[in-house]
Amino acid sequence: MAKLMLEVNNLNVSIKVKQKVYPALEDITFKVNENQVVGVVGESGSGKSLTAQSILGILPANTEVTGSIKLENDELINKSSKAWQKLRSNEVSLIFQEPMTALNPLMKVGKQISEVLRKHTNYSNNECYRKTIDILKEVGLKRPESIYHSYTHELSGGMRQRIVIAIALVNNPKLIIADEPTTALDVTIQAQIIDLLKDIMKKRNGAMLFISHDWGVISQVCDYVLVMYAGKIVEQGPMENLISNPQHPYTKGLLKAIPDFKKRGEALYSIPLRVPALTERRKGNWPYIEITEENKQVVADIFPEILQRETKE
Amino acid sequence: MLEPIIEVKNLTKTYKAAQKKFRQKTSYIHAVKNINFQVLPGESFGIVGESGSGKSTIAHLIMGINKVTEGEIIFRGRNIAQLSRGGEREICRNLQIVFQDPYSSLNPKKSIEWTLTEPLIIHSIGTKASRKEKVIEVLEEVGLGESYLKKKPHELSGGQRQRIAIASALILEPEVIVIDEGVSALDVSIQASILNLLNELKEKHKLTYIFISHDLNVVQYFCDKIAVVYLGDLIELFQTEEFHQEEHAEYTKKLFNAIPDVSFTSRTS
Ligand SMILES: Nc1ncnc2c1ncn2[C@@H]1O[C@H](COP(=O)(O)OP(=O)(O)O)[C@@H](O)[C@H]1O
Ligand SMILES: Nc1ncnc2c1ncn2[C@@H]1O[C@H](COP(=O)(O)OP(=O)(O)O)[C@@H](O)[C@H]1O
Ligand SMILES: [Mg+2]
Ligand SMILES: [Mg+2]
């Protein structure tokens, strides 16, 4: 059996805004195994980044967390900030969407990578340099020695994203979290970065949580997917199953909305509901849509859960 | 045969490259070179390519936002390449643009009503009362309505802001709208509703679109013709319907092979 890497159980995150507490994540439960890429897909505001931030221990201060997050059976919730920091430098890494915000424009890129090693290992300067060159090669950058000495503004978007990936990988993390890592890139470069991440995963027996709002990308990278809406997992399952036979009407709706050649000439389906803003949410009331006589049918078609809620009352 | 509404002939734009060293000889970047194409009235003309390939440059030249270095832009039989946008009201009215990020193109301090009324005032159209009527009409056309008049851009979602950007392109009743990555930043369900809206408006007002996108699924769904640009060159131009029957340039093949496989979408519809 595959080794269990990450286990999230009944994770709840609430956020305080102007003295009031709102539910941001409700009952998030899923697993990531070694050698597995788990995708998180959903519209913006659905809680994808907050899920990542919870696992990395980088939630903003105005949040409250309950539930359990275990990395290789080690409970992370309520760890000290020092312990989190150690974890982030050795065991869990984050790859950001926007390479420019993750990189320092004033420092040579090679230095930025070797700096990570210097801080968190006992390697000599020479070893740090060699490891950095190795990782630059691994992320597919040619002439790593000259890349080492360049600055971010001298590199293309695709190259910068490779540097960000190198920084995330250099400490051999057990779990990589990629939050929209290809969203800012062009299709052709996107495809290269996706291939790179897949290669690296294979070589390292890694585990990855891959966040994207783009089903095309998700379908290429992931073995297993979580579909989120307004802070909850609507549906989860193995990739192939989920896209060929989605169970939840919301998932079906998202998939139907994707344009392609075959849909030419017909109007696209669009989900007639928007993701409620945080401050519109009331705990226990998911999907947080005010039900009226007029919209009841529309909402129930997409979230049949509201019908169960009524019969319970 | 149908006369093209826009024809671009040998369109070239060069920029001076930033000088790296003092007194270095100035070098030039060809943002686009020798581009030729015709857009027929009522067509959705797609332009695809990687970032930096010259898509926005083409859009800006057609719009008169940037000056043409060489070549012609024929609009309804007349070369407009050397005209200044401010000086030629009629053309300015007839060509409108929608950008990717309406947040940066909408004035954050001004109400939606102000944003939509401003072009009418500039073009001395209507009276105060009739202008307001027109603004409300356009707001309704883009699916928003009167209640949005007093709102500011930050009070709107991404999809709503894009609807306002479309409304402000529509208000002068143009013939051609250039859409530069106009749906690229949106979630798929919102993107679907905006694409539907654009198609409805096109039908209703007999619009012509020049639709720029790096998203090949969107372009293959939306456009009648597709022009592929690479490093400032127009590599290939084809009818979307015939894409699967024809032989294509190597670059086009590479670009279209990189499209993530979303064939499952048909299984669910
Ligand atoms: N620090 C914060 N303060 C207030 N609201 C927040 C904060 N962080 C996130 N949110 C809200 O929580 C919801 C989920 O956000 P996020 O996880 O960033 O969504 P996603 O990544 O899926 O787009 C959104 O409604 C967002 O506005
Ligand atoms: N104002 C400018 N000055 C110098 N170079 C520019 C300017 N605008 C665009 N370019 C260059 O022209 C080329 C084409 O850019 P652009 O038309 O924006 O491409 P796209 O829209 O396809 O991403 C790029 O190499 C870009 O750097
Ligand atoms: Mg996010
Ligand atoms: Mg552009």
What characteristics describe this protein?
heterodimer, A: alpha/beta, 4-stranded antiparallel sheet, 39% helix, globular, B: 269 residues, alpha/beta, Rossmann fold, 6-stranded mixed sheet, 35% helix, disordered C terminus, binds adenosine-5'-diphosphate
What does this protein structure show overall?
Chain A contains 13 helices and 10 strands. By secondary structure, chain A is α/β, with parallel strands linked by helices. In chain A, the strands form 2 sheets. Chain A has a 6-stranded mixed beta sheet with strand order 6-7-8-3-9-10, sandwiched between helices. A 4-stranded antiparallel beta sheet of chain A has the order 2-1-4-5, with helices on one face. Chain A is globular. The N and C termini of chain A lie far apart (42 Å). Chain B has one domain: P-loop containing nucleotide triphosphate hydrolases (Rossmann fold), CATH 3.40.50. Chain B is 35% helix and 23% strand. In chain B, the strands form 2 sheets. In chain B, strands 6-7-8-3-9-10 form a 6-stranded mixed beta sheet, with helices on both faces. A 4-stranded antiparallel beta sheet of chain B has the order 2-1-4-5, covered by helices on one side. The longest helix of chain B has 18 residues, at 188-205. Residues 263-269 of chain B have low confidence and may be disordered. The chains are: A alpha/beta (313), B alpha/beta (269). One adenosine-5'-diphosphate binds at residues 15, 17, 24, 42, 44-50, 60, 277-278 of chain A. The site of one adenosine-5'-diphosphate has 11 residues of chain B, from strand 2 and helix 1.
